[in-house]
Design brief:
heterodimer, A: five-stranded antiparallel β-sheet, B: 355 residues, Peroxisomal Thiolase, Chain A, domain 1, 11 helices, binds zinc ion, Thioester_dehydratase-like (chain A)
């Protein structure tokens, strides 16, 4: 005996990318500009401790601090971890050690990568290292390409520094990209599967009997699972609409066009779609419409008038 | 009238089975059975609850305002009194506790969920780091924990075999006591994922959800035979610069524990949110736990670590031990951020049982 095959779980790649743009305070600006100029700055707290990388507020007292000092590009590893499989975005694309490095003249440690061709056996807490500068520097923590082993003694004391540079860096752009696999779950999968057959399927709440489309698996009023599948439409009524006058990027639709809320027959919730086949200034509340499917798209391309008389306001006023 | 602190209790706890992937359900579909179970235990309906608070993260889902979808599962119809923290649900519980202290509600539903399977959780968690000095380097969560582990080894506070023993104890406890756990039983300690941490030192990646009900005063006694009274709860944070901190210690945990009253009398049970074996070493020291205390009888985060819910689960497991009568005084700890950056400690007590 064999059991029927489980319905295939829908999945799709989902990429989230954003250029995180941030302004800098005076201390961060001096530090990152300094890196561009191969100069490492720290900040001295009122207790006399030198923080590298520097912050604008004392982590103990929360006082604003901006007494800048220059420290050495050499330092000592305070702890480490061997990373055998670098991940996207990390400083080196071959196995390396993450290190916290206390630069000579500083009292705190900076996180970065250590290029250690000798492998994990060549790394230890207390080892001496120095900065390897990136060839192209823009005023960012990545201006330090990584650290590398160095056999010199600890020597330098911090020196006062004005923190002034020509053309200071005042902001950073931190690009981020995260990759996901989107899986829509039971209710939305059923809805999407039906769309592939050009049918629109919602789900009914067992408690209040409302039909939700697209279904999300739960009735937001009753907090229970919606389970009973109900085919709705294909015809429906425009409950409200707006006229779009701005052309969206990468969208091949002439403006102005109408975007509307459409209550499909049998549904207790309006979904949204574009209205076509009628001049934009003739679309109205109560207009009866039907979906137009084109090409391979899973969703109706747009909705067009059916030619029926307009629906009476009382038939859709609860769905506005 | 404002109830006195200590007159608020966790009266019910439920959690999902924790799984590597849950592709067959959406977040709300994963969460709903847990919500229904926790309400059923008290006889409450969603509409009876005075305050609802949740914890989750948009970065796990990869979508903005993702918690609003999950809200469908509680019937969030106005005029619901509701709030959300973009953090572990333990902090949502803290907010609910404060709400009950104000006297504006006498019951609260707290839930949390996370589907780590949607993305790469090691990468996702880099986005919670300082955006100037850390995030551009993409240091993943395992690597940061490994730096902390090496610092502990260098300080002579632990070593590989001791860490392996923590892993083995946790997963054996889960096999005995926790039918919901994802990773249970004796297994090889594995290769280095990021030296000095081996795969066995790291938590499983998985999906899951949890919920608790809080109630104040007489309501708590009505809803639960043996309420887990919250005698104290506090949370504290470390400096965000990792190189500013002593990674072998957790002063924020110690301070939160002190403010919560943890050191006034010994506890018999502690549920610690230590996703990495090395972090249990730090927490035991900060909380002054000796071998007389049962630590993580549930298996802890090493057995199931649904991100954003694992801390709330520690509070729920500690409370459930009191409900069952296997504990009279339990500590619960939750953490958030890299290397135990933020820490919450609660002291839970049951009343003396009739002989
Ligand atoms: Zn309903």
């Amino acid at each position: 005996m064999t059991s029927p095959p489980a319905p295939q779980t829908l999945r799709a790649p989902l990429v989230v990318e954003f250029p995180f743009t941030r302004s800098l305070g005076p201390v961060q600006s001096a530090f990152l500009t300094g890196l561009r100029e191969r100069t490492v700055l720290g900040v001295r707290t009122t207790a006399g401790t030198v923080l590298v990388p520097p912050v604008e507020y004392d982590p103990v007292t929360a006082e604003g601090i901006r007494d800048l000092v220059e420290v050495a590009p050499t330092g000592t590893v305070t702890t480490w971890a061997w990373n055998p499989a670098p991940r996207r975005g990390q400083p080196l694309d071959r196995p390396f050690a993450w290190v916290l490095v206390r630069l000579d003249g500083a009292d705190t440690s900076l996180l970065h990568a250590l290029d250690a061709p000798g492998g994990p056996g060549a790394v230890r807490t207390g080892m001496r290292v120095r900065i390897r500068w990136a060839p192209d520097r823009a005023g960012a923590i990545t201006d330090i390409a990584c650290f590398e082993p160095y056999d010199g003694e600890e020597s330098r004391q911090p020196r006062p520094h004005t923190g002034r540079f020509t053309d200071p860096v005042t902001g950073i752009v931190a690009p981020a990209r995260l990759d996901y696999t989107y899986t829509p779950g039971r209710a939305q999968s059923a809805h999407l599967d039906a769309l592939a057959d050009r049918r629109i399927v919602g789900e009914r709440c067992p408690s209040c009997h409302k039909v939700y489309v697209p279904p999300r698996g739960a009735c937001p009023t009753c907090g229970v699972a919606t389970t009973e599948r109900v085919e709705v439409g294909p015809r429906g009524t425009v409950t409200t609409f707006c006229i779009v006058n701005i052309k969206a990027k990468n969208l091949d639709i002439e403006v102005p066009y109408v975007y509307a809320h459409i209550a499909l027959d049998g549904a207790d919730l309006a979904l949204h779609g574009r209205i076509g086949g009628i001049p934009y200034d003739q679309v109205r509340m109560g207009l009866r419409v039907e979906p137009v499917w084109t090409g391979e798209g899973r969703h109706p391309d747009h909705y067009r008038p059916t030619g029926e008389p307009d629906a009476d306001y009382d038939t859709y006023k609860e769905l506005l | 009238m404002t109830p006195p602190a200590g007159d608020i209790a966790i009266v019910a706890f439920a959690q999902s089975d924790h799984r590597r992937r849950t592709d067959d359900v959406s977040e709300v579909e994963m969460l709903m059975p847990v919500l229904h179970e926790v309400l059923e235990r008290t006889g409450l309906k969603a509409g009876d609850v005075g305050f609802t608070c949740s914890g989750s993260s948009d970065y796990l889902a990869g979508r903005a305002f993702s918690f609003t979808m999950a809200l469908d599962g509680v019937g969030a119809w106005p005029p619901i009194s509701e709030s959300h923290v973009e953090m572990d649900g333990a902090w949502a519980l803290y907010e609910a506790w404060v709400k009950l202290l104000t006297g504006e509600a006498d019951t609260a539903l707290v839930y949390a969920y996370g589907k780590s399977s949607a993305g790469e959780v090691r990468d996702v968690l880099t986005r919670q780091l300082d955006p100037y000095y850390l995030a551009p380097l993409w240091p993943d969560s395992v690597s940061l924990a490994a730096l902390q582990a090496q610092a502990l080894i260098d300080a002579g506070e632990t070593d590989g075999p001791a860490l392996a023993a923590i892993a083995a104890r946790s997963r054996s406890s889960a096999a005995e006591n926790n039918p919901h756990a994802q990773l249970t039983g004796v297994r090889p300690h594995g290769d280095h994922l990021v030296h000095p941490l081996r795969t066995g030192d790291c938590p499983p990646v998985g999906d899951g959800a949890a919920a608790v009900v809080l109630a104040a005063g007489r309501r708590a006694r009505e809803l639960c035979d043996r309420p887990a009274w919250i005698r104290g709860i506090d949370h504290r944070i470390e400096a965000h610069g990792l190189g500013v901190r002593d990674l072998t210690d957790s002063p924020s945990t110690r301070l939160a524990a002190q403010r919560a009253g943890a050191f006034e009398r010994p506890a018999d049970t502690a549920e610690l949110h230590a996703p990495f074996t090395s972090q249990e070493v730090v927490l035991r020291k900060a909380l002054r736990l000796d071998d007389t205390v049962r630590v993580n009888p549930s298996g802890g985060a090493l057995a199931a670590n649904p991100v954003m819910a694992a801390g709330l689960i520690r509070l729920g497991e500690a409370a459930a031990a009191i409900h069952r009568g296997t504990s009279d005084r339990a500590l619960a700890h939750a953490t958030s951020g890299p290397c135990l950056q933020q820490n919450l400690v609660a002291v839970l007590e049951g009343e003396p049982r009739a002989a």
